[in-house]
Amino acid sequence: MFMINRRDFIGLSLKSIVLIGAGSALQSFTPGSFALPPRKKVKLRFALASDGHYGQPDTSFVAHHDNMVALLNKEASGRGLDFTVINGDVFHNDPKLIHPAKAAWDKLSMQYHVSHGNHDMIDESEWEKVFGTRWHYDFKQGDNAFLVLNTADVKGKYVCPDLDWTREHLARHRNAKNLFVIQHITPVKWTEHGIDCPELVEMFSAQPNLRAVFHGHDHAEDGMKEKNGKHYFFDGHLGGSWGKPYYGYRIVEVLRSGEVLCYQVNPAQEAPVNSTTVKR
């Protein structure tokens, strides 16, 4: 069943929009005040969705994936998407499920990237055969760099990412205009299902061009948390059996001005669930 507490209910009832600039005060706005910037001002636009849990018993996992693929393809044919990130828990425990899960995502009309989650219980070499990447990898899109980090072992145990690999690749991309990190589990124990990785957080805090870190895993989290001036985002869930009472995704727009707009989408409502503008 979906989990919803009083705080979630109030948040859904108000449908407030929150805009937070680095170092600025918290401000709340009504849904009608949210307006997307003109498309010509957007340099890069991508989506993140997580926790499809393909194959989880007693869930409508096929319908969940079909619906999310349709939503993301609609985004691509409308305002446009350069790519999508599926941020972990691509399938649910059984390694054989990786193939139908990939087939579901292959219906996307745009390029997509994946991260490894704790329920993706498959050997890294087999993962690489299917998706073409190791559990840690990087990619670039124009002058934007992305690090995809691993946060679980083959049995689903939570682990901190490989610190040596991360340190090396943070340095490698220090001159990128914008750097983004994608990892399934948050490295701060500020959520029920987080894990503390203080050395990793210290690296992130010291990286001047790191604009945002994106997580899945915590199905009941769909907002933003800030630490040492860095923004950590969550996107709820697109499947599974618990969490926020909707299946959603997050959109990121990198603007030509240098600002980064991140907003959470609940397909059942017109206004975003929340929105954060990360200033230069």
Defining key terms:
14 strands; globular; disordered N terminus; six-stranded mixed sheet; 26% strand; 280 residues; 6 helices; alpha/beta
What does this structure look like?
The chain has 280 residues and is of the alpha/beta class. The chain has six helices and 14 strands. The strands form three sheets. It has a six-stranded mixed β-sheet with strand order 5-4-3-12-13-14, with no helix packed on it. A hairpin with a 2-residue loop joins β10 (224-227) and β11. α5 packs parallel to α6. The longest helix is centred in the N-terminal third of the chain and has 17 residues, at 61-77. The chain is globular. The model is unreliable at 1-32 (pLDDT under 50).
Contiguous uncertain segments of 5+ residues:
1-32
- Tell me the strand order in the biggest sheet: 5-4-3-12-13-14
Give me the strand/helix succession.
Answer: HEEEHEHEHEEHEHEEEEEE
Q: Count every helix, treating DSSP H or I runs of 4 or more residues as helices.
A: 6
Biggest sheet overview? 6 strands, mixed
The helicity comes to 10-25%
Percent in strands: 25-35%
| Alpha carbon gyration radius | 17 Å
Shape: globular
Mean pLDDT: 90
Helix/strand/pairing category: alpha/beta
In whole angstroms, how far apart are the ends? 41 Å
Number of E-state strands: 14
Concise synopsis of the structure shown:
With 280 residues, this protein is an alpha/beta fold. It has six helices and 14 strands. The longest helix has 17 residues, at 61-77.
Q: Helices, strands, pairings?
A:
Blueprint: H1 6-14, E1 17-19, E2 27-29, E3 42-49, H2 61-77, E4 83-87, H3 98-105, E5 112-115, H4 124-131, E6 137-141, E7 144-149, H5 163-172, E8 178-183, H6 198-205, E9 210-215, E10 224-227, E11 230-234, E12 249-255, E13 260-265, E14 274-278
Parallel strand pairs: 3-4, 4-5, 7-8, 8-9, 9-11
Antiparallel strand pairs: 1-2, 3-12, 6-7, 10-11, 12-13, 13-14
Helix pairs in contact: 5-6
